[in-house]
Amino acid sequence: MNLLSQFLPSSFDRQRSIAIIAGKDVYPRLTFEAIQSHGIKVFLIGFEGETSHDLISKFPSDRVDIIKVGQLGRLIRSIRRTQVGYAIMVGQITPRRIFRGLHPDLRALKILKTLKQTNAHSLFGAISREIENEGVKVLDARAFLDQEITEEGLMVGRLPIMMEDHITHGIKIAKKCSQMNIGQGVVIRKGTVMAVEAFEGTDEMLRRAGNFTTDKMIFIKTSGPCQDFRFDVPVFGITTLKVMHKSKINVACLEAGKTIILEKSKVLDFASEWGICIYGFS
């Protein structure tokens, strides 16, 4: 196991630089700060309308490229220019861009024609292959964030004993949905599936479930059997916790070792204050 992070390959060379391919919100910033703390040289490849200006401002002009979503050729040229040894893809790209707001260049169009299914998994899988064809290793997107990973067992709050069978049932449902590439989360109440995550994402699913205005709902987030952690990591953060609180969903069950809790200490503090239980299952 690599001492810098359990999610790095044993052959990882800290003398080689890393390109962060950064999407939205806080995930890319946390990754940048963690990598920087180890003294590793970092470059940023960001996306117009997605990557935060605050993160972009942390990089000198010769270490940052901002491109449009879909400009695969330009992304590869940036990879070549920086001569990095590794790339890490972190932070969501707004899902609707797959249908509207995508700016594919010639290289991207060529890749799109080869895909049997046009979804996030197939697109980012193809991008990863293109990057690795340049001799650049795409890292597990959990790398360097070991302290943010969900732990097994009760992390905060109290889990009613009567919910244990319901959680087991919910995990089976969530696993099956993930296996079918529907989504990574479900909301259940006793034996009833209240909502299933699909293309709209976790927060919208939770809002839908909240419209039922009932009690004892449980949110479960899991990974799939063939999860590619280079670009598809289950993530839980303060925004989702706020949606749970507003929707009166007071139990979150997250897959331990595989789900990142962004700004974990802050999330656990707010969960305790709001009476929300967070439990890690394996």
Structure, explained:
The structure is a single chain. Helices cover 33% and strands 20% of the residues. It has nine helices and 13 strands. It has helices at residues 27-36, 53-56, 72-82, 106-114, 120-132, 164-179, 202-210, 238-247, 264-274, and strands at 18-22, 42-47, 64-67, 86-90, 137-138, 153-156, 185-189, 192-196, 217-221, 235-236, 251-255, 260-261, 277-281. The protein is an alpha/beta fold and 282 residues long. Helix 1 (27-36) links the parallel strand 1 and strand 2. The protein folds into two domains: 18-138, Rossmann fold (3-Layer(aba) Sandwich), CATH 3.40.50.20; 149-280, LpxI C-terminal catalytic domain (Cytidine Deaminase, domain 2). The strands form three sheets. Strands 6-13-11-9-7-8 form a six-stranded mixed beta sheet. The chain has a five-stranded parallel beta sheet with strand order 3-2-1-4-5, sandwiched between helices. This is UDP-2,3-diacylglucosamine pyrophosphatase LpxI. InterPro entries: LpxI, LpxI_C, LpxI_C_sf, LpxI_N. Its EC number is 3.6.1.54. It holds the Pfam family LpxI_N.
Would you kindly provide a brief summary of this structure?
It is built from nine helices and 13 strands.
Layout of secondary structure:
Elements: E1 18-22, H1 27-36, E2 42-47, H2 53-56, E3 64-67, H3 72-82, E4 86-90, H4 106-114, H5 120-132, E5 137-138, E6 153-156, H6 164-179, E7 185-189, E8 192-196, H7 202-210, E9 217-221, E10 235-236, H8 238-247, E11 251-255, E12 260-261, H9 264-274, E13 277-281
Parallel strand pairs: 1-2, 1-4, 2-3, 4-5, 9-11, 10-12, 11-13
Antiparallel strand pairs: 6-13, 7-8, 7-9
